[in-house]
Amino acid sequence: MPANASFSAPVFDTVVRMITIKGSYVGNRADTAEALDFYRRGLIKVPFTTVGLSQLQDVYDLMKDGKITGRYIVDTSK
Predict the structure, then answer these.
(1) How far apart are CA 22 and CA 51, in angstroms?
(2) What's the whole-number mean pLDDT along residues 47-58?
(3) By C-alpha distance, which of 28, 31, 68, 33 is closest to 51?
(4) What is the C-alpha to C-alpha distance for residues 72 and 75, in angstroms, rounded to an integer?
(5) Which sequence spans correspond to the domains of the chain?
(6) What are the DSSP calls for 4-64, one per residue?
(7) Do 55 and 72 contact (CB within 8 A), yes or no?
(8) pTM for the structure as a whole
(9) How far apart are CA 52 and CA 78, in angstroms?
(10) Distance CA 11, CA 13 (A)
(11) Within a 13 Å sphere around the CA of 63, how many CA atoms are in the beta-carbon half?
């Protein structure tokens, strides 16, 4: 976000929907740009698997068995 940026959130909806808003005091915009550059150059490996919605039960089974590595992305169009 730009310096001195702010945002607002509706209190009632935030509480009822149990939304958590988190921030970080670590890093700045230059650090973010550097981290993105590392990723672009392939220096950061992010393990992820994309699965279709039809495979969701298989993903739950893998989680239950402790066999998930990285992140799973569910593509609802599949």
Answers:
(1) 28
(2) 94
(3) 68
(4) 10
(5) 11-75
(6) T------HHHHHHTT-------S--HHHHHHHHHHHHTT-S---EEEEEGGGHHHHHHHHH
(7) no
(8) 0.47
(9) 4
(10) 6
(11) 9
